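STRUCTURE:
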């Protein structure tokens, strides 16, 4: 991918929403983009695992995990499944684990922090709904653009 979020912002202005700069890069790709799919869950990654086990078709999963720092919602096994199923990336308002392995995968992963504690498995959560965090509302079907400088969201696909 050859886009830069700074250039996309300069070209798009008010047509894009910019996330607060609170995320760290954990995946093998710092630069990734695609249509958004969403999950909302709290300290239970059952739905994250299920969605990333479905065909990704170049999408990016945006996970509202409530900003919890108490457990990881994504680790190496689920991330490997995401790669296998064609997901481009994951934006996680929560934590990851297995960071060394994530860094070696062909997947973009942005999250708040790392935590070795695994999440619960209660089968709870919602998918394909608007979620809001980091000053932005993410809607299924919107487009997300992530790189080392930040994260932009647009209703329409931008030319990259």
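SEQUENCE:
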């Amino acid at each position: 991918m050859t886009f830069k979020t700074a250039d996309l912002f300069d070209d798009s202005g008010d047509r894009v929403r910019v996330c607060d700069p609170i995320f760290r890069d954990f995946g093998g790709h710092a630069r990734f983009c695609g249509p958004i799919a969403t999950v909302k869950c709290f300290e239970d990654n059952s739905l994250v695992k299920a969605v990333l086990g479905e065909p990704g078709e170049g999408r990016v999963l945006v996970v509202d995990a409530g900003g919890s720092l108490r457990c990881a919602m994504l680790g190496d096994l689920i991330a490997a499944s995401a790669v296998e199923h064609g997901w481009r990336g994951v934006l996680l308002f929560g934590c990851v684990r297995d960071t060394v392995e994530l860094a070696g995968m062909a997947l973009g992963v942005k999250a708040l922090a790392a935590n070795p504690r695994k999440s619960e498995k209660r089968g709870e959560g919602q998918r394909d709904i608007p979620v809001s965090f980091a000053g932005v509302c993410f809607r299924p079907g919107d487009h997300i653009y992530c790189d080392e400088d930040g994260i932009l969201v647009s209703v329409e696909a931008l030319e990259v």
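REMARK: The longest strand covers residues 32-40.
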